[in-house]
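Example 656.
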Amino acid sequence: MNRSFIGRNPSILIFLLVLAIFTIGVTFMSEAFGAGMISTSFVKTLGKTLCLALVAVAMDLIWGYAGILSLGHFAFFGLGGYMIGMWLMYERTREIVESSMMEAPIPPTEQEIVDGIGNQIFGVVGSSEFPAVWAFADSLVLQLALVVLVPGLLAFVFGWLAFRSRVTGVYLSILTQAMTLALSLYLFQNDSGLRGNNGLSGLQNLPGLDDVSQDYVSMWFFWGSALALALGYVFAAWIVSGKFGSVIRGIRDNEARVRFLGYSVEGYKLFLFTVTAMIAGIAGALYYPQAGIINPAEIAPIASIYLAVWVAIGGRGRLYGAVIGAVFVSLVSTYFTGGQAPDINLGFYTIQWVDWWTILLGLSFVLVTLFAPQGIGGLFDLVSGRHHPDRHGADLGPDHGSLREEEAEE
Amino acid sequence: MSQLLEVNGISVTFDGFRAINNLSFNIGRAELRAIIGPNGAGKTTFMDIVTGKTKPDEGTVLWGEMSRNLIGMNEARIAQEGIGRKFQKPTVFEDQSVEDNLLMALRNNRRAFAVLFWKPTDADMNRVSELAAEIGLSNALGRKAGELSHGQKQWLEIGMLLAQEPKLLLVDEPAAGMTPEEREKTTDILVEAAKTRAVVVVEHDMEFVRRLNCKVTVLHEGSVLAEGSLDHVTANKQVIDVYLGR
Ligand SMILES: Nc1ncnc2c1ncn2[C@@H]1O[C@H](COP(=O)(O)OP(=O)(O)O)[C@@H](O)[C@H]1O
Ligand SMILES: [Mg+2]
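Predicted structure in complex with magnesium ion:
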């Protein structure tokens, strides 16, 4: 208890070290700053993967630690993406509109420019009026604030209603799915104000930075994603390290008991649900400029389920497990669905990975859940068990089933 | 004399079955009380009502100097008022260390933000060692609660109760599954605790109740059948019929 936060959690240092080495390594292999061994599009893939790792950390906080299986955190991720996408698209379109109008003999008025932007952005949905939700789209600062405020507010309102009525377990998971579905269906509508199924596009182009090549932009976002992951990880580790962590793990294991200790379980859940939604929003705001496009399909209920699958495969209840799961599964998934994996010809049937990958993933999920609930992260216990024979001298426990000392001696 | 807890005429019905029937019960500020009664008499349900888990259909539960009605408050609020509860089956946080279990129970600010920034002071740590010594778990502070024996878990839960510093302790069958020596030690802890606060112990085992040496309330079919010293109630004809005689 007297040791420092990092001292008590050496895994944080290890994680930060690995992340730093990875970031520097990628930098020196990139097109922009190094040998060019890694293509710009793969840098983007890696940067996006770091964002997925960050939203997985949030998922692990809410599910792995507090035991709330939210199947809606990808909706918060998508909302974060939409919020930053609005500014990117607005400002970028303004540049295009302004430069084309400047060629006209009479200089355009401010209103004409705004109308021009509206025409450009909303032409695809047969409109040119700016919906009310775009009110702040010309302000980077406000849209950045909305990246956390919109997911945070939605999570707060949803959580307040659900937790107050003591909805738990699978019912809560279903409710979060319903919320996600409702949001994506709403966004699919043309009059949602966010361009319906077209979504927001061209997000990879940063306004005012036309002459900077994507080689550089991709690296900036890669660094930004790495930094956000580092900060998010340390923040999450801090949250779970102290008494707050004890309380939320208590809620996961026996929420009634926590209530009788005098803790307002609903308040803790609401706090954590909202904070993790905000983290998810930040992750999404870094992800979609690297993806270049966001549309309502990104928010589909299945995306949030995948998120849970990553965390389960990586190992829930340990933050690095979530990161490992997200990185591993999403990269392998890119490999299989990107058409890079060679088809396997069985003579009578050809296994095409694009189709079979989902089945493989589902199968791994079931196998991990049944046979290795600790996930990939559980492998680290084997290693750390050997390197920390601290348990010497501790008695073996009342029933001799817990062979702690013997394990440590190996 | 003002009472700490006054339960007046509470009743509760589960699907047409009257589990608690017009029950009244009082306890003073520093008093030890045993509640006995056959299985299904409503002992646990009575505790559920006092701690806010179950809402009674009628009646009042008045608490403290101000005689505030506890009915309608949620569990956390009632716990903060100073009512601690030990469950029939030991419920500790098995995945966490004995120390973390005790720290979580220590009487401190329960609000999320305060807890987030909370750091144990020396006083807190001393209190934890004191409690650990009292419940015989000084050498087990770093161990996961799940590794403890059944009896040790019961004690840990009692230790967590004491850490809350409640004004009223409700203890549901603390001696269940304990060895005779463990039972003896449990009696000592409860008798000691009752010197400074109210303690209500639900128990089946007559030997255990005898050793507590306190006033006894006999519950039957959701209401009080008899009340008084153990010898007094065991001499009661009705008590013998419904409980002891079987
Ligand atoms: N939530 C509930 N729903 C339905 N019946 C209940 C519920 N809780 C308790 N009961 C019934 O109320 C009666 C009293 O139970 P309980 O208080 O647990 O008895 P005791 O603790 O004295 O053995 C029992 O018949 C039990 O089946
Ligand atoms: Mg009972």
